[in-house]
From TrEMBL:
This is Co-chaperone protein DjlA. The transmembrane domain is a dimerization domain. InterPro entries: DjlA (IPR023749), DjlA_DnaK_co-chaperone (IPR050817), DjlA_N (IPR007791), DnaJ_domain (IPR001623), J_dom_sf (IPR036869), TerB-like (IPR029024). PROSITE patterns: DNAJ_2. Residues 184-250 form the J domain. Regulatory DnaK co-chaperone. Direct interaction between DnaK and DjlA is needed for the induction of the wcaABCDE operon, involved in the synthesis of a colanic acid polysaccharide capsule, possibly through activation of the RcsB/RcsC phosphotransfer signaling pathway. The colanic acid capsule may help the bacterium survive conditions outside the host. The gene is djlA.
């Protein structure tokens, strides 16, 4: 869960920083790009905790693991009192029966403007939260699939993310210091063990490109979020090296 928490920490730090910049700017007019970045961070923050609360309630009750995860996220972020209240409030709203998931997703979809890498990150966050109790319940899967459809994220790509996150969690729980197992390595790269060497290399290049720090920075993500990209790139590289060493290709 380190990458997941690191991402959220980066998001809120960027969120708080941009609010401070707006106050310091006074009468100066922010560029349209800067305004959009602030808007992305604000709606991302609200949607992250609101939908996280909605997912936690999807199976009928909020489990102790899900509550602990939410608390851990807020503690690790080092939120000030006001930000903590906001996060708790958004999470609480998400648990309510009248939470408007469709409206929240529409706001997020409009704000992200079809940026697939940002959309992918959001879905990874929610999936990690859904797996807080160790498995993805049918009711949670139904909500996640709805999120994907409304954000325009392909369901086949969603299934690959499910497999990837399961492999990452398994690797972390196993506490291996020597990299992922061969089985986890294939799952992290989203390929079968029967894949050709060329297919392994193609999968590695594709995933590395999706999480490349420079490419994400060009989309306006906060500097703190680049740490997640670096962590993911390292994990993908470790999986690739595990397969490469086993097969013996260069």
């Amino acid at each position: 869960m380190g990458g997941f928490l690191g991402l959220l920490i980066g998001l809120i730090l960027g969120h708080q920083l941009d609010k401070n910049l707006i106050r310091l700017a006074g009468g100066f007019v922010l560029s349209s790009l800067a305004k959009h970045q602030v808007q992305v961070q604000q709606i991302f923050f609200e949607a992250t905790f609101g939908i996280m609360g909605h997912l936690a309630k999807a199976d009928g009750r909020v489990s102790e693991q899900e509550i602990a995860l939410a608390r851990q996220v807020m503690q690790r972020m080092g939120l000030n009192d006001n930000a903590q209240r906001m996060a708790v409030d958004y999470f609480g709203r998400g648990k309510q029966p009248d939470f408007d998931l469709d409206a929240m997703l529409e706001r997020l979809r409009t704000t992200l403007r079809g940026q697939q890498n940002l959309t992918r990150m959001f879905i990874e966050i929610q999936l990690s939260a859904a797996f807080a109790d160790g498995q993805l319940q049918a009711s949670e899967r139904e909500v996640m699939e709805k999120i994907c459809v409304q954000l325009g994220f392909p369901l086949d790509a969603f299934e690959r993310l499910v497999n990837m996150i399961q492999a990452e969690i398994h690797h972390q729980q196993a506490g291996r210091d020597q990299g992922p197992s061969l089985e986890d390595a294939y799952a992290i790269l989203n390929i079968d063990e029967t894949a050709s060497d060329a297919e392994v290399k193609k999968a590695y290049r594709r995933l590395t490109s999706q999480h490349h720090p420079d490419k994400l920075a060009a989309k306006g993500l906060p500097k703190e979020m680049m740490k997640l990209a670096e962590e993911k790139t390292h994990e993908i590289r470790s999986a690739y090296e595990r397969i490469r060493e086993t097969r013996g290709f260069k």
